[in-house]
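TODO from last week: model Hydrolase, alpha/beta domain protein.
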Amino acid sequence: SSRFRARRPSRLGRRTRTRPAAPALHPLFLNSLLPKVPPLPDVRIRTLGDFDNAYTAPLHGFADKDDYYRRSAAKPYLRDIAVPTLLLNARNDPFLPARFLPTANDVSPQVCLLQPEQGGHAAFVSGGGRGHLRWMPQTVLRFFELASDGD
């Protein structure tokens, strides 16, 4: 289906994704962030919630971590999805515990929930060893194949 046709990257995009150019741009990117990042407050941070409360929320204009979590959550909008969508969440994600993952009651019929036991926050590797990252791309491609069969 034409919905999934990849767009040709811009000239800048092609240049920044090449191996020789990318390392040279990293220091420029990091230096551009420094003026935007305030120093960490003098508080004891023991959890991700503490960090979000002391740093992430104020940096991005939220009152506190609860305001940040509430206003940036996608879950309230999952029932409104109108196109085939794969929602992939590992049940062992350290940042999003399984008890907070959406259920079939939280999503529209267009959403395919896939919640494997393993995968961490962004790993989803298969097989053994470094560089063996086929599981997620293969799963996503299979979803696109099935979704486009319905067109």
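Done. Residues 135-149 form the longest helix (15 residues).
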